[in-house]
Amino acid sequence: MNNKKLTANTYYKMVTDHRESQLFFSALKLDIFSCLDNRISIEEIADKTKYNPRNLKLLLNALVSIHLIEKHQDQYVNTEEGKFYLSKSSEYYIGDAILFRNEMMSLDNIENRVKFGPDKIIADHNQGQKVYDFTKLAKVCIPEIYLWRIEPLINLMNKIYQDTEPSKILDLGGGSGAMGIELCKAFPNAKGVIFEEPKVSVVAEYLVSKNNLNSRITVQKGDFIKDDIGNGYDIIIASGIIDFAKDHLNNFIKKLYDALNKNGIIYLITHGFSEDYLEPSETILGWLSSHLDGLDLLLPDKVIQDAMMASGFRLYKQDKSGNHSIKVYQK
């Protein structure tokens, strides 16, 4: 039960928080942070961007007031975090991912969606690709994967494979394939497969080529629910995909089981939903828009775990990464 005390100020603060978010998203769309890697004046920014100097100054002062940037006399500059995450000069720039997620998860027009119900076509088909642009998602989320997903994966697999190496790795529904790519780099004798739908696979093909791994990693195209995913794998990475097998869960998990070698590992990342779908709140809100549109995909963690154990897997290790649940199962 939620024991958080609410006051009148709690509700008014939501108004301020919303304005701060609007300001932040507008600054990202205007690419303001990329102009502020070094101290710079209003006149210089206006000359570079061709934005209106008066209103540009109002915007920048507002960003200073909420501590997203700094002001030193008459010059503006990024915070260290802003330069690292929000400037396009940084390899860890996440601005496009933030904007995409904000659009993807938008609750605009929520009133009409509640009044009139979901989109019948989306509800009838219940397919994520009808709602989400997975190709764009794969592109913009590459920095996020390197920030939060790669290190826990590599560290754990190094512990599991202290005395040997996996010979074959599958990144299933891997989007950009970054996790599979980095795992293959960590184990230089391993071969890899990235399995993705055709439209998204071009992102993985680009990243494999960029890393000069075409001789070791194959990009396989298809529908991982219906199609053969191959076999002989020592590790299968299944990050955020098992919900899409909701209507075929037991058959899908059997497919995973059969695809693994004896003692093979599944590295499973789920959304960590409670059985009553009340936690975690950030994930509930993140998926609310698509659910209002008509999707019904998400599985509670307990349902997934019970199905994995019933199929013969044993739980090897579990952890948390933000709002996501990481579970490692062994055949």
From TrEMBL:
It comes from the Bacteria. Keywords: Methyltransferase, Transferase. This is Methyltransferase. It comes from Vallitalea maricola. The lineage of its organism: Bacteria, Bacillati, Bacillota, Clostridia, Lachnospirales.
